[in-house]
Amino acid sequence: MPRPSFITQAPRPSPGLSRYEASCALFGAGLLVLGRSDPVPGQIQRLMRLRDHLVTRGADEIVLFTDAANVVLLRDPAGLTEDFERFGAPIVFACEPGFTYRLPGGWGVSRRYPPAGGKSGMYRFLNAGAMIGRAGALRRMLDELDTDIPVDCAHTVLHAWFLAHTGRAALDYDQEIFATSACQAGLETRLFEVREGVLRHRRTGAAPYFLHFPAENRICSNRLLDMMPWMRNLPRLPVRGRDRGSYLINSIENSLSWLLDRPAYPLNDWVRVVLFYLLPGLVAAGLAASCL
Description:
Blueprint: E1 5-9, H1 15-26, E2 32-34, H2 43-54, E3 62-66, E4 71-73, H3 80-85, E5 91-96, H4 106-111, E6 125-134, H5 135-144, H6 154-164, E7 170-171, E8 178-180, H7 188-191, E9 192-195, E10 198-201, E11 210-212, H8 218-226, H9 241-260, H10 264-290
Parallel strand pairs: 1-2, 1-3, 5-7, 8-11
Antiparallel strand pairs: 3-6, 4-11, 5-6, 9-10
Helix pairs in contact: 2-5, 9-10
């Protein structure tokens, strides 16, 4: 059975893209990079570039599209077509614990999502950085996006489409195709393990083909890659100063989501407000009162 075509977009070379290309080379998989000779600005314009490219594809061809600088291929994609078809949907989106929405009313939009539908309760929301589907279905979906909005956010337009078109796309709740590190810094070994020669999710048992690092924390991504002996020679991105501080904070925020097996949104927001704003404020007020 033919493998899906792997597509990404990048206006220029980057360490993250080089890492992605190297991971594909490990398994003999090709990666088409759009935009190198004619870059377009913005997330929504990149979706439109993908739509225009899909016109050149057969309607039934299976196409996989991801971000460029924060994705790696984890294993031989020989069984990917069969695993995609088992979803029974023409489009499958990556699924994550967090929720990104750049317009007012995000809380209400998030409540319209169905409950987490997998073996773990953590993964509930669409992630815009990875999708797979029939080229014709993807093209129609991209044609139907409401892009006349005042923010440049792929998540925002894709959330709106997904909620308005029930049944036309599935979410990868169990991380069977796309695993994500979103809102999971500090949970690397709690959620993942190497078993039977592949990276597996401890809660769902899935062996994902791709690992996506949204808003990549390089401590988190490097720890996950270091778990896999076959990724030993894959390029690592150097840890930055901001990675260290955010990793500590995110590890604290993400713990409650893991303990309760619930999505990180809105739990992480509550943890952040209580631990990093409310409690310090109460302590400061108490100290001030004791000095009077």
